[in-house]
Design goal:
The complex is a heterodimer of chains A (308) and B (100).
Chain A: H1 2-22, H2 26-46, H3 50-74, H4 85-107, H5 117-122, H6 124-127, H7 132-140, H8 142-160, E1 171-172, H9 182-205, H10 213-229, H11 241-265, H12 276-300, E2 303-305
Antiparallel strand pairs in A: 1-2
Chain B: H1 2-29, H2 33-55, H3 62-93
Classes of the chains: A mainly alpha (308), B mainly alpha (100).
Chain lengths: 308, 100
């Protein structure tokens, strides 16, 4: 029975991926991409990788999907800018090459595949955490996660710099026409309290169960965007001081605690064992705020009118 | 007792599946956006509601059951609101003679 389910999921994923690549109209491709993300999340659930499934659903499908819908609605119609056949062919070849290389890497893995899973599980008590994925992200490979959050900042600066000069630091294009439709306004009043609670819960429970700052941050970002869409909050000016402090808070706290690690244990991002868990939770708490605001601002896009 | 509960689960989940299949059929076969939405939201409300009702006796704890009811309530909220939004957009795009 579960083989049948896996087979159906696999077929669905392949069919949706095919549709994303072949459908002519941009918005159609984006919708198929969001569907593909949901199916992939289910595939990860079937592989018992709940952390990855949550991230795929929240960030890969949800926030990225929203960002792409917004980008697609701003582009001119897809017929008007069909790429040259040579470019299409080159892109297709490159994608096939990448897929082939990835497949080769996975298929040619030695048996048993090299793994650090046992090591990760063995040192878990030292971090005070119960979820090995969170331990990898915030303790063992903390530097990678720190750089990831910095990459998010750089991406945001990149998006901001796409706007015209005169609007720099101003307000992004509204997410939806105002005044908002009554059902949207209603949803924007009822859903955010639950959504924000869920986001905080995802980050908090990430210490011992599947979840974490990225998933929780994405859910909170979705709630912030819903508030903007429903007209309950005004699109902020990107030059706002509080906004910018929020965006850099996570990486800044992470780096500061990393420096504390130098003093306490002699290595950057080394957590002293006795207070490892409180430190990690503190970092996660700062990260979730920054990730939520940064993801929301990525969807909001560059400023299009000057600050009032 | 557990056999009775099992039968109840099978009946309710089965009925829920019927609603989902009918809703999907409607989505594929109905002529315009509003009737398709009608079919889809019925599947969401009744189909999911019946499946959930069937699964409630199988929940491992009352807490788990409460979580499932919470999921259903949130789904009701989202599908109801989004259904209305889609319908408004569809009406806005329809030509005057298409309007009901």
């Amino acid at each position: 029975m579960s083989v049948l389910l896996d087979f159906i999921l696999l077929l669905l994923a392949l069919a949706l991926a095919f549709r994303v690549a072949t459908v002519q109209d941009t918005l159609g491709a984006v919708i198929a991409f969001v569907g593909l993300g949901i199916v992939l999340a289910l595939v990860w659930v079937r592989l018992d990788a709940i952390d990855v499934a949550l991230t795929e659903a929240a960030v890969g499908s949800g926030i990225t999907g929203l960002l792409l819908v917004r980008a697609a609605s701003r582009l001119p119609s897809s017929q008007a800018r069909a790429p040259a056949p040579a470019l299409k062919l080159a892109a297709g070849l490159l994608s096939a090459l990448l897929a082939g290389a990835l497949a080769a890497v996975v298929l040619l893995l030695p048996e048993p595949a090299p793994t650090l899973a046992l090591e990760a599980a063995r040192h878990l008590p030292q971090t005070g955490l119960g979820n090995p994925v969170t331990a990898v992200l915030v303790a063992y490979r903390a530097l990678d996660t720190l750089l990831e959050t910095v990459v998010l900042l750089l991406a945001l600066v990149g998006v901001w710099s796409l706007g015209p000069d005169r609007a720099w630091g101003g307000h992004p294009e509204p997410l939806a026409p105002m005044p908002a439709a009554p059902p949207l306004s209603f949803l924007g009043r009822v859903l955010p309290p639950f959504g924000i609670l869920l986001g905080v819960h995802l980050a908090w429970t990430g210490a011992d169960n599947p979840g974490g700052a990225f998933q929780g941050g994405a859910v909170i970002a979705a709630m912030l965007l819903l508030l903007l869409m429903a007209g309950h909050a005004r699109m902020p000016a990107l030059s706002g001081q509080r906004l910018r402090v929020l965006v850099i808070l996570g990486p800044a706290v992470f780096m500061l605690i990393g420096l504390v690690g130098v003093l306490a244990t002699g290595s950057f991002l080394g957590f002293p064992e006795s207070i490892a868990k409180p430190l990690i939770l503190f970092v996660e708490a700062a990260l979730i705020l920054s990730i939520a605001v940064a993801l929301g601002l990525l969807v909001a896009g560059p400023a299009t009118r000057a600050a009032q | 007792m557990s056999i009775l509960l099992g039968i109840f689960t099978i009946l309710a989940v089965g009925a829920g599946c019927v609603f989902f299949i009918a809703g999907t059929l409607g989505l594929l076969r109905f002529p315009d956006a509003l009737t398709r939405l009608h079919a889809l939201t019925k599947a969401d409300n009744l189909g999911l509601g019946l499946i959930l009702l069937g699964l409630l006796p199988q929940a491992s704890s009352p807490w788990m059951a409460a979580k499932m009811v919470g999921v259903w309530l949130l789904m009701q909220l989202a599908s109801g609101a989004v259904g209305q939004l889609l319908a408004e957009t569809a009406l806005g795009e329809a030509t005057p003679e298409d309007r009901p």
